[in-house]
Structures are given as C-alpha cells and as structure tokens.
Amino acid sequence: MRPPKLAIFNDLSGYGRCSLTVEIPVISALGIQACPIPTSILSNHTGFPKEYKVDFTEHMEPYVRAWEDLGLSFDGILTGYMNYEAQVSLAASFIEKTASENTVVFVDPAMADNGKLYRGFSSEYATYIKERLIRKATIVKPNITEACILTGFDYDEIICDSKEHTMRKLKSHLMNIMDELSTLGPADIVITGIERGNSIINAVSENGEVKFLTARKTGSNRPGTGDIFSAITCASVMKGMAFGKAVAKAADFVSTAIRISDDAGIPTEEGVIFENILSKLSATADQLSPY
C-alpha cells in the first residue's frame, strides 16, 4: 500500500536533534513518506555557542516549483520554523495550490517561548503567521506563549494563574484562547507547554470538544521535543488516529524520551535520544488505519 506523503517546511540542523533531523525519522517510523522543504540549513541548532547557517529562502521557490511542474500531490503539509515573511508566504501559496479538502494541514507557529518572541521576530511577523498560515490550517499547535500572542491574551496573567490559582480558572483561560483560535479556522487545536507544579498540561480542542491532558513533568526542557511532538501528532492523524489520541501518543513519547535522556546524562543541547525508542513508534504504526 502506498504510504501517505507529508510535505514538511522546517530548517535542517545537522547536529542537535531538532527540526527536520528528528521529524523525518519519526514520520517515516509511523509509515508516512517524509518530503522535506528546508527553510535554512545549519551545522547545528542555535542553542550552541556558534553555528554555520545557509539561508535557503532564494532556493525555496524553484524547489517547490519543480514539485509543482511534476504534478506531485501530498496528503499532508506540516509547517515548522521559518525565518522570514517570504518563507511564510511561499508555504501559504503551496498550501493554496496543493491542499484539497482532505489534506491535513498542520501548522506549528514556532516563533516564541517563555513569554516572548524569538530573537529577530516582530509582532508584525506574528500577525503574518496568523493571517497567512493559521487561517489555512486544519490543525494548529502553538505553545502557550504563541497562543497568547496569536489571540492577544495576557501571558503573564495566565502563567501566574497556572502557578497560584485554581485549575478551574486556568482551564477557563485556555478554553477562551482555544475559542479565539478556532475562529481563525482550525478544526483541531493543541496548546502545549503549560506547566503547573510538577505537571505538564496539553489543552486539546477536537472539533469543538475540549480536553485537558495532564502528564508528570519527567525532566529538563530540551530542543527538538516540539518538532517530535508535531511529527507524531500529524503523522498519526494522517494514518487515521483521532486527534486527542494522537496528542496523547506524542506527549507520552516525548516524556519518555526526555526521561531516558536525563537518565543517560545526555547534554541538554543535544536534544533527546529518541533513536533508542523509535521502534515503539514503528510497532504502533501498523495498528493505525491506512489514510
């Protein structure tokens, strides 16, 4: 049976286990053909003291045009980290030209964390992501910082509530944010990275039904875990798994990968040793329905 095809916009870091370097093997393990579109190529991710970087923007348009000229089609499109509005515009145009009503369009805004935008990004860029990509998504996966930026909610107030106030109040905030995100178009939403005590909460809205998935925080924050989370969730949905179950599957895998990486003493900047448990994904891939 032909594996479904997933086009992936993200950067390629040769060392450090993040972005396309982790997404391609994870997606392949789940029985999906990974088709990368690099946004930049780096010797290693930017969490290291130095890196060599090649901006791929000028090559992206002819790269994608070659696919279009060949008449290639895709069952899913996943967008991750992009550097410039020009890259966002190209990804949006690719979605417009390629996606059908059955295409899974998964958008990870990948622009902010810990209450602020990444270095070099502006509020205008955030608005561009919102208008050009979020409105075209069937699934959107912001972390709590990105969700607040996209909807105008106060990050500091919500983080304060997550630490000091009742769970009911925190859930109320998150439901309001997801309601606002849903007005932009995505049918399925997951807000990640909500820490409360020793727990991590993922807020899920699946066709309007809201769930809060809570897991024990198992270790340190590591690069690449968001990319792995996106890859597992998107690929699992493409294979027929319900969105909420796909999110829970991704969260469990990432939690396990963090724990074994901490136990093994792997330096934080090297990400997670997901290779050691990749076979677990391969084993579950056959249990999923074909696309």
Write the layout of secondary structure elements.
Blueprint lengths: L4 E9 L6 H10 L3 E10 L10 E3 L1 H14 L5 E4 L5 H14 L5 E4 L4 E2 L2 E2 L5 H10 L6 E2 L3 H8 L3 H10 L2 H16 L5 E9 L2 E8 L2 E8 L8 H14 L4 H21 L14 H8 L6
Parallel strand pairs: 1-2, 1-4, 4-5, 5-8, 8-9
Antiparallel strand pairs: 2-3, 6-7, 9-10, 10-11
Helix pairs in contact: 1-8, 1-10, 2-3, 3-4, 5-7, 8-9
Short descriptors:
single chain; alpha/beta; two-stranded antiparallel sheet; nine-stranded mixed sheet; 10 helices; 11 strands; 291 residues
Provide structural commentary.
There is one protein chain. The protein is α/β, with parallel strands linked by helices. It has 10 helices and 11 strands. It has helices spanning 20-29, 57-70, 85-98, 123-132, 144-151, 155-164, 167-182, 225-238, 243-263, 278-285, and strands spanning 5-13, 33-42, 53-55, 76-79, 104-107, 112-113, 116-117, 139-140, 188-196, 199-206, 209-216. The strands form 2 sheets. A 9-stranded mixed beta sheet has the order 3-2-1-4-5-8-9-10-11, with helices on both faces. A hairpin with a 2-residue loop joins strand 6 (112-113) and strand 7. Helix 1 runs parallel beside helix 8 (225-238), helix 5 crosses helix 7 (167-182) and helix 8 (225-238) packs antiparallel against helix 9. The protein is globular and about 55 Å long. The termini are close together. The model has no long low-confidence stretch (mean pLDDT 92).
Give a summary of the structure in a few sentences.
The chain is 43% helix and 21% strand.
Mean pLDDT across every amino acid position: 92
- Largest beta-sheet characterization: 9 strands, mixed
Helical proportion? 40-55%
Shape: globular
Q: How much strand content do the residues show?
A: 15-25%
Along the chain, the helix and strand elements come as EHEEHEHEEEHEHHHEEEHHH
Report how far apart the termini are.
Answer: 10 Å
Computed structural class = alpha/beta
Radius of gyration: 18 Å
Individual helix count: 10
Low-confidence parts: none
Strand arrangement in the largest pleated sheet: 3-2-1-4-5-8-9-10-11
Number of strands: 11
